[in-house]
């Protein structure tokens, strides 16, 4: 009997929906307070997951969701960086 492998699920901090980890983008805050996109999901630090769709990023930007979750100031330019990353990944 083949066992089904459990798919790790993560919750989008912008939309609140649960999705498989591979469909999510991890944003991480280091101990120094720097935030960055974590495509591997393995960087150390406080992480927050966002859905890889433009609507979720727009919601996060409007509500400043990442700043609340990561307890750090997030510039609007960082949200633009996330959008660029998603567009590159989809093409």
Percentage of β-strand residues = 15-25%
Question: Can you give the helix content as a percent range?
Answer: 25-40%
**CATH C-level name:** Alpha Beta
Strand order of the largest sheet: 4-3-5
How many angstroms separate the termini? 39 Å
CATH topology tier name: Hypothetical Cytosolic Protein, Chain: A
Number of helices: 3
Gross morphology: globular
CATH superfamily: YlxR-like
Largest sheet: 3 strands, antiparallel
Count the domains.
Answer: 1
What is the N-to-C succession of helices and strands? Answer: EEEEEHHH
3D structure, described in words:
- This protein has 3 helices and 5 strands.
- With 91 residues, the protein is α+β, with helices and mostly antiparallel strands.
- It has a 3-stranded antiparallel sheet. A two-stranded antiparallel ribbon has the order 1-2.
- The chain has a single domain, classed as Hypothetical Cytosolic Protein, Chain: A (2-Layer Sandwich), CATH 3.30.1230.10.
- The model has no long low-confidence stretch (mean pLDDT 92).
- It has helices at 54-63, 65-70, 76-90, and strands at 9-11, 18-20, 24-29, 35-38, 46-51.
Task: Name a few traits of the molecule.
91 residues; alpha+beta; Hypothetical Cytosolic Protein, Chain: A; 3-stranded antiparallel sheet; two-stranded antiparallel sheet; 3 helices; 24% strand; globular
Give the helices and strands, then pairings:
Elements: E1 9-11, E2 18-20, E3 24-29, E4 35-38, E5 46-51, H1 54-63, H2 65-70, H3 76-90
Helix pairs in contact: 1-3
């Amino acid at each position: 009997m083949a066992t089904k492998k459990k798919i790790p699920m993560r919750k989008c901090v912008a939309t609140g929906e649960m999705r498989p980890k591979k469909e999510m983008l991890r944003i991480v805050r280091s101990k120094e307070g720097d935030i960055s996109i974590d495509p591997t999901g393995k960087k150390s630090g406080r992480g927050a997951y966002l859905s890889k769709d433009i609507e979720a990023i727009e919601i996060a930007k409007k509500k400043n969701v990442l700043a609340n979750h990561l307890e750090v100031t997030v510039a609007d330019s960082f949200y633009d960086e996330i959008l660029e990353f998603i567009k590159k990944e989809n093409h």
